[in-house]
Amino acid sequence: MTKYKMNxxxxxxxxxxxxxxSYMIGENPETDDENSTKYNTEPKKGISTVLDLPxxxxxxRKLTTSSFNVKPTLKEWLKDRARRxxxxxxxYKRVPILTWLPNYNVNAAVADLVAGVTVGLTVIPQGIxxxxxxGLPPQIGLYSSFMACFVYTIxxxxxxxxxxxxxIAGLLTRENNHGFGVSGAVLLCFLSGCVEFLxxxxxxxxLIDFISGPVSIGFTSAAAIIIATTQVKDVLxxxxxxxxxxxxxxxIFEHITETRLWDCILGFSCMAVLLILRSxxxxxxxxxxxxxxxxxxxxxxxxxxxxSTARNILVVVFSAALAxxxxxxxxQPFKLTGFIKPGLxxxxxPPFETQxxxxxxxxxxxxxxxxxxxxxxxxxxxxxxxxxxxxxxDGKTIDATQEMLALGVCNIVSSFVQSMPVxxxxxxxxxxxxxxVRTTFGGIYTGIIVIxxxxxxxxYFSYIPKASLAAVIIAAVVFxxxxxxxxxxWRTKKSDLIPAxxxxxxxxxxxxxxxxxxxxxxxxIFLLYATARPSVKVEKISAHPGxxxxxxxxxxxxxxxxxxxxxxxxxxxxxxxxxxxxxxxxDARHIQGADFTAAKGIKSLIxxxxxxxxxxxxxxxxxxxxxxxxxxxxxxxxYCESYGELNExxxxxxxxxxxxxxxxxxx
Length: 667
Known about the structure:
The protein is α/β, with parallel strands linked by helices. The protein has three domains: 85 residues, no CATH class; 399 residues, no CATH class; 134 residues, Transcription Regulator spoIIAA (2-Layer Sandwich), CATH 3.30.750. The protein is built from 27 helices and 13 strands. The strands form four sheets. The chain has a five-stranded mixed β-sheet, sandwiched between helices. A four-stranded mixed β-sheet has the order 1-2-3-4, with no helix packed on it.
């Protein structure tokens, strides 16, 4: 914030020559606070004052003005924003590598190396498999697995988050590609990155909060089932078009007689092995007591953990070796992945124009076809990445803005190497965490492993059976189906099952975007209903003999949807007492704010009580609420600032009521 301090050259309070010194907070020791403007003198009314800035390190200019309300020009405002945006603290916050790199040591490097290589062995088979989910050539999954790792090392704030292709991102890409192939996926990656980066700049992370837990559970479970469904045909060795849930199952039943025996055996065998290896991850050899354990016990335990962690690459390599063995002997019982383009992709801008069937589509045409995916994909990617960061936060605060900026840059840069949309994957994050990663530098080693695989091993990837890749995907996504949360949800709040089930059904049978929108819409309806129908507690209180009153306590703020309901409840409660002499006290302790409509409603409520000569008082009102109510100038608006004032007023009303009763009795 810029402050202005004004001093007269000759020390007097009059005169026309005034010096204005402009400086930043923290630069001048004479500042009082950050939100005040300090004046040592004022110009006389009507006198034109020349403002001379001293020729020193502060900003300098001369102005002629008739007042001290000096507004900076656009150029000065931009300079000021740039100066504030280039502070050391902000740079360190937005480029986290600058914080930990100076203290990087050998121990951290070794830990990151182990974690990076382990994740690299995991991401290679997943990348190839997820490109199949997205309906793209297998090399696209590998192209998506290295550049984001390098970028996130610099800008990422969660060391456990390995950025790359995910099952959900692959499914969303498949559903929204509209026949554009690789060009559509790469453009979607670029646009998703732009949206994520823009959300970070505008600090729109609060939008993720509108996707509640039940909606997220319904979406994730439905997406997992759809992903697994699309892979069943590869497990059975079938070939047909279609990626929607009902369409796939219809095709499976139509072609079930064409099932290939060896693909089926390999697929189910790979799934069984993967699930078994997953279950032994936390298995420990030897006694639990640390004193009784021997080195061989720890070595064996770590070896079992390594086998469990690298289960995907082991199963895929074994299946490829088996397929290669059969081919050497002149037969091939499995359907193979086929040719994978070797080498690194060309570094070039994403395609803003493409040609399909002799028809050219420009950027506007492609963007229009992608439609809602340009918003849905980045939103869900951010949700997935922040959820991953929260799992491994260890109680630390997650900087959602930084994660959005980092994820945006990752997608933008990755689109230059023909990548599909990328995000953090919880499965790889768990591997990273259990591998003991220390910093985001582990992503460098992961990216190097992927690059080496593209250079050296792509000829051998063509021998990978499709059934084994399908087994990898199914074994990974089956644990994303969260049916186990239904029981706790039923015990806590049954109404949460409505958005969860609705989202699940809509995602499963319609589209993922429609399911998300419907789920969020139902949650908003619930929120609006709760806002429009607050709980109003009504109690009859006896302060002391002959001094009864009605205490009414709304449980939330008064806004335009709820004021009419609250007015009706208070009026009915006052009338039901059978005597208009009983005062009504509205305890406003929970009313943190009010709007114009609420103020008009309260004014009408006061008038209703005044007409039937029944006292109404307000207690525990916030100053801002008092100001809002007074803005409509209500008559007989009585509020108490303390409990003592309330008691005094109640006594006065009680005495007045008794006097009126005696007079009526005497007549």
